[in-house]
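Note to self: keep these together.
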Amino acid sequence: MIEPDKGFKLTEENYPELKEGEVLVKIAGCGVCHTDLSFWHYGVQTKHALPLTLGHEISGTVIGGDKKWLNKSVIIPAVLPCGECELCKKGRSNICRSQMMPGNDFQGGFASHIKVPSKFLCPVPDNVLKKYPLEHLAVIADAISTPYQVVKKSELEAGDLAIVIGVGGVGVYGALIAKIVGAKVIALDLN
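Structure:
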């Protein structure tokens, strides 16, 4: 993105240099999130200066860097916490003040490759890849993991009532996850 609401520009970049603890991921898929639309269409300011490659719902294959990750299929979390602060140590990495987000704090996933820290990569098991293409799993990074965490933290159980207000991309997954748990689900939206 060069500037908000002005379209996108295709560019060619060299592969970035990798530091210890970083990997280069060949991107298989990257979901389009409402956050991306907000940066582009509504001019919500990104933390990284423009131009910036958007996209934070990313899946791909590690092709460089940390040898234990080489050739592994991965999902890159949409938010990368520091893992060192008190909030992270208390299990509240979702509100880490030093968290980084691809496509906001650094170059994102609407690209062929991305450089990211390896410590928070999520490996995709082979049995999952036999059932679903890697590019389809990108939305797990945010649109599915966000409502999953909400349902998990709410301690929702079979037979409980779950009311989901807003069934866009994230809300619809929230309703599905609540249903899988066994809750009675009521989903509300404008139309």
